[in-house]
Amino acid sequence: MAMFKYTVVNSNGGKIQGTKEAQSKDALLQFLNNQGFTVLSIQENLGFDLNQLGNIELTGMSLKDKVLLSKQLATMIGAGIPLIQAIKIIGDQSETKFIKDKFDEIYKKIEAGSSLSTALEQVGGIFSEVQINLIAAGEKSGNLNEMLEKVAEDLDKSKDLRGKITGAMIYPAIIFVVMIVIMVVMIVFMVPQIEQLYKSLGADEIPLVTRILVGIGGFVSSPFFVISLVLGIAGIIASYRYMVSVPERKMILDKIFLRIPVFGNMLIKIQLAEFCRLTAMLMKSGIPIIESITIVAKAMPNEVFKKIILDSKDDLTKGNTLSIGLAKNNINEAFPTILIRIISTGEESGKLDKVLEDMYKYYNAEVEQITGNLTKLLEPFILVVVGGMVAFLAIAIYLPIYTVGNFIQ
Questions:
Q1: Which residue did the predictor score with more confidence, 192 or 341?
Q2: What percent of the chain is helix, strand and coil (3-state, nearest 5)?
Q3: Which of 259, 260, 303, 273 is nearest to 367 (CA)?
Q4: What is the model's pTM?
Q5: Which of 53, 130, 156, 278 has the fewest CB atoms within 10 Å, i.e. the most exposed one?
């Protein structure tokens, strides 16, 4: 899915600008028209996706903020405070301009007669489609505060998962960055001094290893390296944006990601855990299976899983079961056979939501184990790489010194 910037006019003639994620420009156009807006312009946002860097999303809200907002709303509504008053209180008390502005818009829409779920969908930038559908289900059943607590729980689980993955990657990243900095400092500052010393003593040609290091140092300290680095990073970002802008191209990229040793297995387990968790949560909230599967498919970031789930939904509409659909459309066997069999058992027993909830716990435990062991798995690789770099630097730096010592003697 791509991020788009849009400009629309509402029924009162007011101009509204915003950003929203959508499958395509046409899909967003249809969505905005269905909301009663007159669309002036839609442009794909080609900027770098900050959401991939961690907890802060393009919306300007962290997951922590969203969890807090959900819990505040649930508590106030549960205490008998009218919804519109609760929205105003949160907006007035917030210290963040983004939240103030968003809740002011939501307040105006609810005051004009919209439901909370409709207002959240129209305003955008706060909750995902899954969470908005949970809120809508809570409004229909009269259990809005309970559903808001579920939304907070859902966001909490997402925050914990993201934190585990980020935490597992911090140690290798720090080691790598520190090693690169040390290498650059030694190449740029120490090696040239050794070279000058070597030449000042009238020694012959410096050793080959040192010449290689000097050549690297000359390249790293040249303007050409900086230009190449900037162009290289820009090229990688542009290539990535090009690949993910169309589902068919993103599918190719996602297939590659799923085949990466260790990381690919972790990505698969994360997707399976999310599928089980979201489907179980939506079904337990009273949302029909076909609608639940449609919502879950849109929430899946990996195109392989998205396509499998959407194709399985088509089988559901034809009268087949979810397990049959998953088995039939299982690209690269992304869904394990054992999971499909367990889903089939849940369908036969009428306890599909319970079975999926149990499988979420299983896959979540698997993800925790993988992220917990990731540092241990990477340690041998890090040691080999760091050891090789240290050995190369030591030889390149001390070999000339040793040679100079012999030359003086």
A1: 341
A2: 75, 5, 20
A3: 273
A4: 0.70
A5: 53
Which helix (H) or strand (E) segment holds residue 15: the answer is: strand 15-22
Residue 18 pairs with which residues in a beta bridge?
A: 6
Residue 50 has pLDDT above 50, yes or no: no
Is 113 exposed, middle or buried (CB count within 10 Å of its CB: 0-12, 13-18, 19+)?
exposed
Q: Is a pLDDT exceeding 70 seen at residue 122?
A: yes
By three-state DSSP, how is residue 379 classified? helix
Report the pLDDT value the prediction gives residue 308, as an integer from 0 to 100: 94
Kindly give, in sequence order, each residue whose CB lies less than 8 Å from that of residue 291, ignoring residues fewer than 6 positions away: 133, 282
Distance, in Å, from the CA atom of 135 to the CA atom of 105, rounded to the nearest integer, reads 18
Largest Cα–Cα distance of the chain, in whole Å?
Answer: 94
DSSP 71-105: HHHHHHHHTT--HHHHHHHHHHH---HHHHHHHHH
Angle subtended at Cα 42 by Cα 41 and Cα 48, rounded to the nearest 5 degrees:
135
Place of tokens 């993103």: 250
| Amino acid occupying residue 330 | N
Contact in structure between 293 and 322 (CB atoms under 8 Å) = yes
Q: Contact at 8 Å (CB) between 341 and 324?
A: no
Give the tens place of pLDDT for each residue, 145-158. 888 988 888 888 88
- The 3-state DSSP class for residue 261 equals coil
The identity of residue 360, as a single letter, is Y
Q: What spatial distance separates the first Cα and last Cα of the chain, rounded to whole Å?
A: 70
